# Entry
Amino acid sequence: MTRQEYIETGRTTVAGWFAQRDAMLFDAIDVSQRRVGITGDILEIGCYQGTSAIMLGYMKQPDERLIICDPFDGETLSAEDDTERARYYTDLSRGTFENNYRRFHAELPEIVAQPSSALHTQSLGQTFRFIHIDGSHAYDQVRSDLLLAKRFLKPNGVVVFDDLLSAHTPGVTAAVWEGVANDGLVPLFQTIKFYGTWGAPPEIDLPELPWYEHDVSGHKMLHIEG
# Structure
C-alpha cells in the first residue's frame, strides 16, 4: 500500500484514533522538513495498535531511526492510567501492534517496551525531527514527556501531543499549555492534537483543510478543522 493510500483509507483498517486531517498534517510536516533539508530521527510515545506509528514508518528515511516507546499490556504508572485503560482500550499486546505494522512495512521499528520514563536511560540525544506523544494522559507523565521532548527535539523539529481537546484527558491540556506559558513551547496547529515546536516555527505547506487563526501567548496558532 502506498503512503497516500494509507492516509486516505489504510489507517481505518487499524484500530485506533488517527483522523485523516492529522495523517495529512503528519505528511505535510514530513514533506516540508525534507524540502528544506531537515533530517533526523522519529519518536512515538504510546502506540496502541499502530495506526499513527504506521504513518511514521512511511515518513522514516533509510538513514533515520523510528523509535516506538510503549509498555503495551505491562504495568501502568498510575490509577488514572488503569481506569483509562479499562474504559477505552482492548488489545494492548505488543504482538497485535507488530502484526499490524508488518501489514504495511517489511521491518519493525525500534521498540522500547517500557514506560517513557525509561527513555531517560537510553542513549538518545537531540536527534529527533518529529515526536508524537500519545502515552499516559496523567498530568505528571505528560509534563515529563514534554520536558523529554524539549531535550530530544532538533531545532525546527515538531512535537505533537494527542488528546489536547479530549474531555477525559485534562492532564494533557494542563501540561501542554503550561509548556507554552513557561517552557518556550510554540503552538503551531491544533486539531484534537496539539502541534508545536521550540524556537522559530518551521515553514510548513499545509494541505487544503479548513482552518482559522488564534493568537495564543503572542503566537499565531491555526485551528485545523476536518
